[in-house]
Amino acid sequence: MKSSLILLIIFAVARSAKFPPNFKICNRKNPNLDECLKEAGFIGVRQATKDYPEIHLPNLNPLEVNEMKISAGSQGVVNVNQNFKNCKLYGVNTTSADTLQFDFEKNVAHVSGRIDELKVFCTYELNGKILLLPISGSGPSTVIIKKLKVKADYNFEQVKKKGKTYMHFTTFTVALEPGSVFFNFENLFNGDKKLGDNINKVLNENSKQVFDDVKEGYAQAFGSIVKQILNNLFAKVSIEEAFDQ
Ligand SMILES: *[C@@H]1O[C@H](CO)[C@@H](O)[C@H](O)[C@H]1NC(C)=O
Questions:
Q1: What pLDDT, on a 0 to 100 scale, did the predictor assign at position 2?
Q2: What pLDDT is stored for residue 16 in this prediction?
Q3: What is the pTM of this model?
């Protein structure tokens, strides 16, 4: 009795799954596949405001991320490693796609679009210099990015398993172009409010320059979060289930 129960559970875990009916799916033979996928992606991110455990898709609003490390910039503006923990990202569901393409010959997915407003709440840790000013502290942080343009290419492999084909995402490039960025780091300098307020003011007066210096770090961080989501999702939903229905 016990062993048959275990077998049943393993069978359930190993089974592949289809997208739930509130998601739109597109057949890859559809002559308007790109248009269809664009709409499917749009609907998909708007639906993902709860967990879908059956397809290994987490709630995207808020999207919870344990850790994000953004390295110091390359132009000397941001001379500090930014360590973020226990992050909650709000606004992924405000994404609109301009392009969503899957090329199964070249094994690459192209995405471009815009996130209206992305709010990133974390616990930060900083110790270094920004704009030549010393900055140090730890506490709650807020980064709000408005009208964020995103362009990404994700390479994948096709892995055959039990007669089905699964996408496994590998390398990627992501480019970000924000409309505006707002920073707030609470409790800087062990809670010295005057110093902290001053630094936040300087950061926001120069937010474009500051973000530009660490944009690549943010792009890598967001890119690998999305890669993990895609890999979990498409390890569950095969190409046949996603694109041949
Ligand atoms: C995003 O999700 C939140 C709830 O998690 C909701 O209040 C908001 O209206 C959604 N935005 C869009 C554009 O769907």
A1: 47
A2: 79
A3: 0.90
Q: What is the pLDDT of residue 14?
A: 57
Fold type of domain 3-243: Bactericidal permeability-increasing protein; domain 1 (3.15.10)
Tens of pLDDT, residue by residue over 59-69, are: 999 999 999 99
Q: Ligand 1 in contact with 94 (CB < 6 A)?
A: yes
User: Is the beta carbon of 46 within 6 A of some atom in ligand 1?
Assistant: yes
Atom of ligand 1 nearest to the CA of 93: 1
Using the atom order of ligand 1, give the atom closest to the CA of residue 116. Answer: 13
Ligand 1, from 22, 46, 60, 61: best to mutate by most atoms within 8 Å of Cβ?
Answer: 61
Ligand 1 pocket check for 59: Cβ under 6 Å: no
pLDDT at 132 over 60: yes
HEC string for 156-207: EEEEEECCEEEEEEEEEEEEEECCEEEEEECCEHHHCHHHHHHHHHHHHHCH
Domain boundaries, the chain: 3-243
* Through-space distance between the first and last CA atoms of the chain, rounded to whole angstroms: 37
Q: Is the CB of 61 under 6 A from ligand 1?
A: yes
pLDDT for residue 5 is more than 90: no
pLDDT of residue 224 exceeding 90:
yes
CA angle 95, 173, 226 (to 5 degrees): 45
